[in-house]
């Protein structure tokens, strides 16, 4: 019932339970309200058994046959989606698993993804290829091998440029080694303050941060690696659950070791109760942190959160995700938290109920303190945790066109999340799978604060909607000069700037990017962005930024080789 907030709230009021929640919310300990909510859910029988969905050969076969029905209409993307679901549900080394690999190899062959085809055929044979398709697959493999070398030749000259572009070779910050030394990282008045230490030109990569945690949206669940966010046709399944696919054995092992060995037991619960990026990131992050720490340390660390932890921590502990407890250093600066706490208390409580049932997860002693530590961290991340929208560039499986993916994923970043929001930022993000690559799009002066936008600046979203998204997503109100109307319009170029654009020779009226000249377009964009840094509201700056973003999209797709 609590998944229907209005009806559940009416029930709580009639039953008198709402006052218990409100009283618990007055406590300084975030665990209290979760424990009260858990007791209410138990008393009202709102915690049903949710059995784990086990691997099933019949279900896998049904999904594969559904995919087969898409072939006559050449709906290859839908067929691939069904085959990936069939693979996820197939028991290990079963006939159903082999057939899912086999059928997927057919799609890859038809679409001339020959190396992908060969990979799936090899996996089919290693799984235990049924005799009745062996000869057909051997012939398909032979034919695919003849053309496999063509996969890598077509764009190889471009990849030299794009691979070099995303090579982060800067001398790095001592405490936060994925950030350039040209960035000064500090804490002022318990708030992060990230500024330029030196002059930074447009196009400069200032940081390349790997996500602390990622979450796939339902639309991407069966086309994206659960660990690194790589988008590949050659995904492989989790050994025990039906919800997760990986791009490699390395990612599968890494994810299992970090947290999925526990999450796997309650993944159906998470999918049922967690709606949106925030709650999903929360529970996965808590499981990851607990896997890192022994119970005694986990309990101890849970008692110092947010601003209190920032006050007593080093720069490395606050900004470097490699630091064990960096997850606990999100500043407590969210507005309007009471409604969030009230609603989140029941989600946290329900998840907590099922987490306690994970085999070999809870300690044999001190269980009450462990329970409270989990509750405390879950609520802290619900209120203060950060989420980023990850929209990657992909090459279309059928048309071969490069474009942004249609459905975003979510990720949590320790450093990137602490940058100040600006509607006209001096840094934008390029997504290389689960890495956030921060790239300057203005000339940044020493001492100037590094800023980014919650929404891609070239998205065309209305300013009002950007502000609403910021408030709902992060609980923050934008205080940038544009939103507070403290700046002039900054939209008129000087005569010298108009002449400079002519000299550079970038055609601002061109909407398409010639990918074979992308390195030249990049350089021209960087020059103009530098020169127009003081007029970020001008049409010329916005058009140049859009062209720069289009170049980045092409480079991202070539770098990652993501196919969707």
TrEMBL record:
<dbReference type="InterPro" id="IPR019734">
    <property type="entry name" value="TPR_rpt"/>
</dbReference>
<keyword id="KW-0863">Zinc-finger</keyword>
<dbReference type="GO" id="GO:0005737">
    <property type="term" value="C:cytoplasm"/>
</dbReference>
<dbReference type="InterPro" id="IPR046341">
    <property type="entry name" value="SET_dom_sf"/>
</dbReference>
<dbReference type="InterPro" id="IPR001214">
    <property type="entry name" value="SET_dom"/>
</dbReference>
<keyword id="KW-0808">Transferase</keyword>
<keyword id="KW-0802">TPR repeat</keyword>
<protein>
    <recommendedName>
        <fullName>MYND-type domain-containing protein</fullName>
    </recommendedName>
</protein>
<dbReference type="InterPro" id="IPR011990">
    <property type="entry name" value="TPR-like_helical_dom_sf"/>
</dbReference>
<dbReference type="GO" id="GO:0008170">
    <property type="term" value="F:N-methyltransferase activity"/>
</dbReference>
<dbReference type="GO" id="GO:0005634">
    <property type="term" value="C:nucleus"/>
</dbReference>
<dbReference type="GO" id="GO:0032259">
    <property type="term" value="P:methylation"/>
</dbReference>
<dbReference type="GO" id="GO:0008270">
    <property type="term" value="F:zinc ion binding"/>
</dbReference>
<feature type="domain" description="MYND-type">
    <location>
        <begin position="225"/>
        <end position="264"/>
    </location>
</feature>
<keyword id="KW-0862">Zinc</keyword>
<dbReference type="InterPro" id="IPR052097">
    <property type="entry name" value="SET-MYND_domain_protein"/>
</dbReference>
<feature type="repeat" description="TPR">
    <location>
        <begin position="60"/>
        <end position="93"/>
    </location>
</feature>
<dbReference type="InterPro" id="IPR002893">
    <property type="entry name" value="Znf_MYND"/>
</dbReference>
<dbReference type="GO" id="GO:0008276">
    <property type="term" value="F:protein methyltransferase activity"/>
</dbReference>
<dbReference type="GO" id="GO:0008757">
    <property type="term" value="F:S-adenosylmethionine-dependent methyltransferase activity"/>
</dbReference>
<keyword id="KW-0949">S-adenosyl-L-methionine</keyword>
<dbReference type="Pfam" id="PF00856">
    <property type="entry name" value="SET"/>
</dbReference>
<keyword id="KW-0489">Methyltransferase</keyword>
<keyword id="KW-0479">Metal-binding</keyword>
<dbReference type="GO" id="GO:0042826">
    <property type="term" value="F:histone deacetylase binding"/>
</dbReference>
């Amino acid at each position: 019932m609590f998944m229907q907030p209005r009806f559940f709230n009416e029930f709580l009021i009639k039953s008198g339970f709402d006052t218990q929640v409100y009283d618990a919310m007055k406590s300084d300990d975030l665990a209290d309200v979760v424990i009260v909510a858990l007791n209410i859910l138990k008393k009202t029988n709102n915690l049903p058994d949710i059995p784990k969905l086990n691997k099933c050969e019949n279900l896998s076969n049904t999904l594969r046959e559904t995919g087969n029905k898409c072939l006559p209409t050449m709906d290859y993307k839908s067929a691939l989606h069904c085959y990936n679901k069939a693979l996820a549900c197939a028991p290990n080394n079963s006939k159903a698993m082999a057939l899912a690999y086999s059928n997927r190899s057919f799609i890859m062959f038809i679409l001339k993804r020959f190396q992908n085809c060969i990979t799936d055929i090899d996996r089919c044979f290693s799984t235990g290829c049924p005799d009745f398709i062996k000869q057909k697959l051997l012939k398909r493999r032979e034919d695919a091998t003849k053309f496999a070398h063509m996969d890598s030749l077509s764009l190889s000259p471009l990849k030299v440029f794009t691979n070099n572009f995303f090579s982060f070779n800067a001398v790095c910050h001592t405490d936060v080694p994925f950030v350039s030394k040209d960035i000064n990282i500090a804490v002022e008045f318990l708030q992060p303050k990230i500024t330029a230490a030196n002059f930074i030109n447009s196009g400069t990569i200032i940081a390349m941060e790997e996500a602390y945690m990622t979450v796939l949206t339902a639309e991407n669940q069966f086309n994206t690696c659960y660990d690194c966010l790589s988008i590949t046709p050659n995904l492989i399944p989790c050994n025990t659950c039906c919800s997760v696919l990986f791009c490699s054995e390395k990612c599968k092992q890494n994810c299992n070791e970090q947290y999925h060995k526990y999450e796997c037991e309650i993944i159906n619960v998470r999918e049922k109760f967690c709606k949106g990026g925030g709650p999903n990131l929360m529970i996965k992050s808590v499981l990851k942190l607990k896997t890192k720490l022994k119970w005694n340390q986990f309990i101890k660390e849970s008692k110092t959160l947010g601003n209190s932890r920032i006050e007593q921590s080093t720069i490395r502990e606050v900004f470097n995700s490699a630091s064990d407890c960096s997850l606990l250093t999100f500043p407590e600066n969210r507005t309007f938290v009471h409604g969030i706490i009230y609603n989140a208390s029941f989600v946290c409580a329900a998840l907590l109920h099922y987490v306690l049932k994970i085999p070999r997860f809870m300690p044999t002693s001190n269980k009450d303190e462990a329970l409270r530590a989990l509750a405390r961290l879950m609520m802290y991340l619900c209120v203060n945790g950060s989420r980023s929208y990850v929209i990657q560039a992909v090459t279309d499986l059928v048309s071969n066109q490069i474009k942004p993916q249609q459905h975003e994923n979510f990720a949590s970043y320790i450093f990137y999340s602490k940058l100040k929001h600006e509607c006209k930022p001096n840094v934008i993000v390029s997504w290389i799978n689960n890495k956030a690559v921060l790239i300057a799009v203005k000339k940044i002066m020493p001492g100037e604060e590094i800023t980014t936008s919650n929404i891609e600046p070239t998205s065309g979203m209305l300013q009002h909607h950007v502000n609403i998204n910021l408030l709902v997503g992060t609980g923050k109100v934008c205080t940038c000069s544009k939103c507070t109307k403290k700046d002039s319009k900054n939209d008129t170029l000087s005569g010298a700037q108009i002449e400079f654009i002519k000299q550079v020779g970038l055609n601002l009226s061109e909407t398409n990017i010639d990918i074979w000249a992308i390195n030249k377009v990049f350089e021209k964009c960087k020059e103009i962005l530098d020169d127009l840094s003081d007029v970020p509201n001008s049409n010329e700056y916005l058009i140049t930024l859009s062209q720069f973003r289009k170049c980045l999209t092409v480079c991202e797709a070539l770098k990652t080789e993501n196919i969707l």
